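Contributing new records

If you add data, match the layout below exactly. Sequence lines come first and carry their own label; structure lines follow with theirs. Keep one chain per record. Anything else will be rejected by the validation script.
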Amino acid sequence: FPLHSIEFLLKSQNLKLSDIECFVYYEKPILKFERLLDTYLGSAPKGFLSFCEFVPKWFKETLFIERVFHKKLSSLKQYGPYKQLKLFYSEHHRSHASSAYFPSPFSKAIVICMDGVGEKETTTVWVARGTNLIKKRVIHYPDSLGLLYSSFTSYLGFKVNSDEYKVMGLAPYGVPQYEDLIFNHIIELFEDGSFVLNQSYFDFNAKLRMTSQNFHDLFGQEPRKSEDEITQFHKDVARSIQAVLEKVVLKIVDVACREFEIFDVCLAGGVALNCVVNGKILQETSCKNIWIQPAAGDAGGAIGAALLAWYDIYKGQRLPSIAGDSMQGSFLGPSYSEDSIKELLIRKRLPIQQFESIEEKAIAVADRIFQSQTVGWFEKALEFGPRALGHRSILGNPFDPEVREIINRKIKKRETFRPFAPALLVEDAPNLFATVHESPYMLLVDKVQPKSGLESASYMPATTHVDGTARIQTVQDDPGSGFAELLRVVKKRKGVGVVLNTSFNVAGEPIVCSPEEALQSAKAAQLDFLVLENFYLTGEQLQKVESPGHLSGKALVPFWSQVKPLLLFMVVMGWGFWIHSWVGLAVAASSYLILAAIYFFLRKQGILRITYFDILGRVNNMIVIALPYFLLLVPFSFITKVAGKPIPFERTSRWLKMSQTEEADTFDYTVQF
């Protein structure tokens, strides 16, 4: 960070460093640092180990981010010299709000941002008009919907800040029998849409774990370990927290729309990726139209920060987009020419097979799909955000229920309860869904309710979840789009243009970016067919692709160079064991240690040196950090608690309403470098 992103922009837009006027960082580190210190102060001495990890990183990088920019720019000398640059800092939630509103099709809107926590804010409500964003309502840490949902994610044995979507996918298999328990003990929801969390059920302040023993006692079970079986209890807990989240978010949206009399809504923040909640906003609130930033998490904050600078500092004009929104389908990443793909195939000694037209490509892929084969689909620019939207996708037959099991088990190697999404022509959405008729970014869920003589709610079993819903992606009928052409071919055969669409990657890897990554991923996933722009390979041909061992694209150490030292070590140890087998165990053990030491000294000095400095560095860090922690933070925390004063992060009110001066807050400090 941020070398690769800067280099991509310079290269793709044919720019030089001298063309850059400023950078914008998506949050204000000093404000966040202040909140983190308050948090550690409130939980001391429980959070010492976490504090030891937090302090070096912040003092080395985050608090002085301009140093990072300066250092990385110095390594891009091939793009020429750069003039003195400004680095602006935008508030975390203002960046989110900007990313949600400015690319949207609305001229005015309610903007709602909900996540774990930014600097201090966890939920904000904004009124947006023209190029102005006015903050109206705020809820501060530690009352957080994102942290609430993540706590249940952790309790259910999934990874925090990564696997929340698994909880959403698991929820329909359960019943919300713990919903009242959660509302009675863990979260209190008020009529104005504000909420308060009971902190006695959480441990995230100390950064040790998300939930406390009180939480476990309340539900009568200890947290599930990742390798443990998922029982009906876990399914019911997932359904219960999903129901709670839905009620709180729907209340926030409905109250905001009615209070400010604006019924177009924009969403951003990690909670906005809960597409089940998003779908119900249209069905159960006064909201008339909704637009959600496709990269709703912190990645989208970069877009929001840049847009905010454009409108706020450079006074740019906001022009209406012909396409409805200005995200360009979220296809903002790298693209690759046919010449570069052909060169790759030649280098890999793979056959050069090419379609003559997008129509021929669409027909060939449709044939494979209707044979229930799995197809890797790679075309044009990479999607920005967590969803594959038809440029880096694995496609399947939505009408065959076995395809879902095949992709989950063989390709994705993931839990079978996780659903897949249908991608369909936007014109067909009214024939399949009751409420959602446009969802270009796969961020809305609706009931599958086929009309116009189509069969039943199980019409698309491979893309219909257990509760009869689907996560929808609608596709515009663009004449130049190969993906849209494929859907048109499918429509001619089935009466509706729809395919199963999931991200082009295997378990543990990101979505593929380059053609080479697509080759490796297609082989690892054992796909039946791969399309690289207008080139294609069959499953048999894919198995001839040389595997590098992983898909990250980094240079690999030759296999023999990794194995040779290990074999040498085994031979030496075997010899030592044979020589010393007749003596006592203690002598033999000592000999092994000596031999191992000689081996590492001769062959692996780097390992010893790195290990030594790593351990020494950690010990020194802990000693240095322990002094202010135990001499200042812990005593001050103790005195504060004994005196009965509230610790700094505790909230005494719910919604914090903004004054006129606070409403206008934006870039309050900058750095030149």
